Amino acid sequence: MSKQKTSRSTLLFPVLAIAAAAALSAGCKSEFYAFVDEPFCVSGASGQDTRFAHEYRLLIKHANGYQVSGLSQGMSTPNRISPVSRRKILFALVRCPGADVPPINAVEVMKEFSDKKVPRVCDGQKTMVHGRLEAEESARASALGYGGFFHFPKVDLPCRSGKMIQDNLYTFGQIMDSFKDSVNAFAGRHERLPETFAELQKETLADPLPKDPWGSPLAFKREGDKVLLVCAGPDKKQGTGDDQKILEMSEGSSTNALAFEDAEMPYGVSYKAFLESRGIDFN
Asked: Model confidence over 231-260: pLDDT tens digits?
């Protein structure tokens, strides 16, 4: 595996979407849904291929409305879908090869979008997927307050470099965003942050936290009105000078996840494979 050194100062992952936070603030299931396993491209030499997602647009239409969005690129929170009735959507994935997708009039585009027609989004566009999708209920979706998950259709998309991935927990960024989903769902339900990871996991079915690049579990900590994930660092001891704050969350405020320092972790590659390359089990 090719390794590329990254610094904590340059790798900031986006905050949760406002609509998603609103959806999770209710104590029960909402009519908001989320996509899982969106495709993205990874290059072994340079990590994430950020150009890939700019060539695509998702067209989504349902009884309550519509939306046009890009791919999440596998580095951040997956696409959320506004309130959906009857758990079904009309879906299309359109590619505009070789160039960024130009601005469009979404209102006019959606007037033409139907089971039989995908409207023109750009010159030379190619429709990669077109059809109806039905949401799947799951314990995890329910625990997060969603009506269900839409599974992104299996596709084989051309990458400018590297390979295409469809895995919802592939990169370290995705793993951290899954954790943030759980914390936001818990906070929206109780108007407070969880005191322990066990409390968070019991209610939201949070995915287990992986080990750090030196083989120690990430430590969940409460510090005042914040939740922290802390890496013990190369000495494998918490509370020493080489500890690294990997994630910090405050109720109702922005969140940042940072790359590990001095770990030579390529951005956008499989975090599980990265640990295995260092002789470390993921969990």
From this structure: 999 999 999 999 999 999 997 676 777 778
Range of the domain at 34: 28-166
pTM of the model: 0.81
Residue pLDDT, tens place only, 149-184: 999 999 998 887 778 889 989 888 889 989 999 999
Taking a C-beta distance cutoff of 8 angstroms, is the pair 169, 208 a contact?
Answer: no
Q: Is 119 exposed, middle or buried (0-12, 13-18, 19+ CB in 10 A)?
A: middle
Strand order in the sheet with 33-36: 80-81, 33-36, 148-151
* DSSP strand pairing (148-151 vs 219-223): unpaired
Residue 105 in any domain: the answer is yes
Instruction: Look at strands 148-151 and 33-36 and give their pairing.
Output: parallel
Show which of 145, 166, 187 is a domain's final residue: 166
CA–CA distance, 266 with 191 (Å, rounded to integer): 36
Could you please report the per-residue DSSP string of 153-177?
PP--PPPSSSEEEE-TT-SHHHHHH
Query: How many residues are given for the chain?
Result: 283
Domain for residue 145, yes or no? yes
Question: How is residue 143 written in tokens?
Answer: 């625990």
